[in-house]
Amino acid sequence: MRKLLQQGAASTAFENPVFIQSTASIVGKKEGEGPLKDYFDLICEDPMFGADTWESAESAMQKEAATIAIGKAGLKPEEIRMAFAGDLLAQAAASSFGIAEMGIPFYGLYGACSTMGESLSLGAMAVAAGYGDHVLCATSSHFASAEKEFRFPLGYGNQRPLSATWTVTGSGACVLGTEPPGTGVSPDAQVLREYKGCAVITEITTGKLVDYGFRDSLNMGGCMAPAACDTIYQHLFDFGRSPGDYDAIVTGDLGMVGQKILLDLLSEKNIDIRDIHEDCGLLIFNNKAQDTHSGGSGCGCAAAVLSAYLLPKVAKGDWKRILFVPTGAMLSKVSFNEGDSVPGIAHAVVIEHTEA
Amino acid sequence: MRKLLQQGAASTAFENPVFIQSTASIVGKKEGEGPLKDYFDLICEDPMFGADTWESAESAMQKEAATIAIGKAGLKPEEIRMAFAGDLLAQAAASSFGIAEMGIPFYGLYGACSTMGESLSLGAMAVAAGYGDHVLCATSSHFASAEKEFRFPLGYGNQRPLSATWTVTGSGACVLGTEPPGTGVSPDAQVLREYKGCAVITEITTGKLVDYGFRDSLNMGGCMAPAACDTIYQHLFDFGRSPGDYDAIVTGDLGMVGQKILLDLLSEKNIDIRDIHEDCGLLIFNNKAQDTHSGGSGCGCAAAVLSAYLLPKVAKGDWKRILFVPTGAMLSKVSFNEGDSVPGIAHAVVIEHTEA
User: Fold this and answer.
1) Given CB atoms, is B237 within the 8 Å cutoff of chain A?
2) pTM of the entire structure?
3) Of A89, A101, A270, B197, which is the most buried if we count CB atoms within 10 A?
4) Residue A13's closest chain B neighbor by CA?
């Protein structure tokens, strides 16, 4: 039983923190050659993940990430009370043929590349309210299925402007729970714990759609930066904090172009996050050496970097409190071709180090 | 502060009921000629809803339904703590350019035609846990945008087998809240109340994906019936009840073909819901006279029938307790063309009459 505080218009603080039990991350070959290569649970050399189509490949990868996360938490799928998952494909197909198939009560989400933030938010809300002892949060993206979905099939060989990001082939999954990781499970479980330290979700800020009228689907960072700015500003306002209260503010996939816009937009509001800003899309690739232009993107980008790199760093205590703010560009092939703008949305999750 | 019970593997009972403050329903011309024509808030003769594309038409309709629901609740958009909405289009485009644009903290969902069940479930969970005094739940579908998304553009003039359903052009929206409808708002507000009676959400059962391997996207009722069976069975099991404990069990859009399969599947488990089964897809059209074959479908079908017809009937006390179980077929154009099966999912929500 948890008492909940509400602050401001868009944020919620959980009186009792939600413990992150375990994480899993799977990426493709290219991601496995990047700066974070030593952190992922699995690097798959086969871009088809043993399947026949790009979409099935993504489903296989996502299901595997979920299976690893549940296993590392020392649990079985039937002990997961509900799953919150989504992806970039039309009708969330990667999830419907991925995690949804695991027999876990399932809520499908769509938040474009912000989906891991949405998933963690709804998962934490469910756990904090006592609706389940353990829930699963996961997302995925795949370079080839995303190019086919939003732009051109790979065989077309289209050229990419420097503002374009590179959709990450990857999936990240976390199990959330009411008790500190390792409670009541086998001591062999590979829970997210470093000696006494672990990671908890303490607060969330729900994103609003922000539309500056940008229409360039090959500059998603630019389309999403205003949403990141809006959510970060709202978050700091709701809790009366400043950037100095965080060891890192980590966006999802703004890339180089979007990062610059975000920093500019925030400085117009007299908020300076320059020294503590990280972006999963800039962490996962060496843009110059790997020819990934503005950086990595896709909801698998934020999810895999969170699971592999950010959360262990918080559990260790290298970071005491971070704000994870993945951003999504709400476009479809149809909306783009019909000349609509590309609005953005960003969901923020506060993750803190604790000893419990 | 609400104490929550958990029963069984997939159901949650809210100790304090969640009050449905108001409802809104908008439909197109064909739906406005059907048996429920006198119940909808708005029947729009123009299938374009004043917009330039089918997708924008759906967005306009959805946003209007949300605006009406919020207005009838006696609230302003800024008093809605969060919105849970989705639709059938790729990347939930109708919602991204619809309700998401209203400046309300927004969670995008994808549950195909079960989305109103998912939306009400997550909305009720949020309100029952104290995360917000008022939340908005909504979905939409549009015949023309759905035909284009899943089958053929209308201009192609394809023929439809008798097992096919007709996607409803419609949207339904509900505002949920912690207090009885009408509390603290203008007495002029058109809240969902009949003298002393109103409607509350008391329990939910979260659906699991069920895949019998059906591949016929023109027999969605057949694809979804096993999921409806699974969720209804799980619900009755979790709460130790029988069909006689409900005045009606209302599925979303199984149509004539799916209804028959559902009744057969349940009778194999010795459960007989024959006398109390209703289906929104069978309620909204006169199939013979309106040439809609197996019945209406689409997440706007269940949402509009719920908002216009089912909820007022519960508020009046004609029904004391119903189980609302919209079903979704988790397919995409790509998954269908790649030969995948069409799995189904169904989310159940218990709605009860109360005097408060």
Assistant:
1) no
2) 0.97
3) A89
4) B131
